[in-house]
Amino acid sequence: MCDHHPSTASRRTALGFLGASLVAGLGACAVPGNQSAESPTAAPRTVGLSPSSSASAAVSPTPSPAGPGRLRNPFVPDFTLPPIQGGLAPVITKIPTKHPVVFLTIDDGLVKSPESVRLLAENGYPATLFLTSNTVRDNPAFFKAFMAQGSLVENHTVSHNVNMTTQWGYQRQLDDIAGMQDFALQQYGRKPTLFRPPGGTYSTAMRQAVAAAGLKAIVTWEAKANAGRMDYQYGNSLRPGDIVLMHFRPEFAADFEAFRSAQVAAGLEVVLLEDFLDVA
Ligand SMILES: [Zn+2]
């Protein structure tokens, strides 16, 4: 979708990834209609990262923002978010990393089911929640349960106008983006640092507005869990550094299982994007 690939950071280290203990699969379920995503050699997975507290204590220089249940990064990020240049926010579609990590993002906030809270909690997955204020305004408090588990709320506009880049000029886009900044701060006590464009479409004016609203980057995706299966823009499995798109939809459980199966089969650990980018 986007060819803007920021250069890899210089702060590369030789530090190994402790989650190498990702182990053999708990009989990962097949992804409907996509046998190729299934790996018979799926590695077993550890439950969370906590059992290896001695190990993680040895290599955890990354800041771990406050929040009960928040997992600590067991690695040193090998990618640095490019700065805002010329007033334009950088665009990230995938993180170039050697670490076996994957990032889960969940959008909009339409369906607010206890099941979605339970599924993330049971698996210990933190997620980046790109919420639209008009969509969550009826019950913004619902999403605090995810925050208590280590997830963060980010900016997906006030209106979710998927044609905003063509219909609106800079100022109206800025107003729509800044409105969600204010809403998030008021409801969740934190100003978002990441922005996802409605429909994934962005423009130069949008990149300017995102930067002007105080956000650090636009985040799109190259893989998504949709209608109970995984869709990949490249290849047929998850890759290290992939950013996965999901939605709070009625089929949340099926989408989640499609993601989880693919993540386990690929031997990847679910890590919070904001932690990796140091923008939590
Ligand atoms: Zn959306």
UniProtKB/TrEMBL annotation:
Compositional bias annotation for Low complexity: 50-61
CDD domains linked: CE4_NodB_like_6s_7s
Alphabetically ordered keywords of this record: Signal
GO biological process: carbohydrate metabolic process
Span list, region Disordered: 34-74
One term of GO molecular function: hydrolase activity, acting on carbon-nitrogen (but not peptide) bonds
Signal peptide: 1-30
Pfam family, one: Polysacc_deac_1
Domain NodB homology: from-to ranges: 100-280
PANTHER family xrefs: GLYCOSYL TRANSFERASE-RELATED, SECRETED PROTEIN
Record-given protein name: Peptidoglycan/xylan/chitin deacetylase (PgdA/CDA1 family)
Organism, as annotated: Arthrobacter bambusae
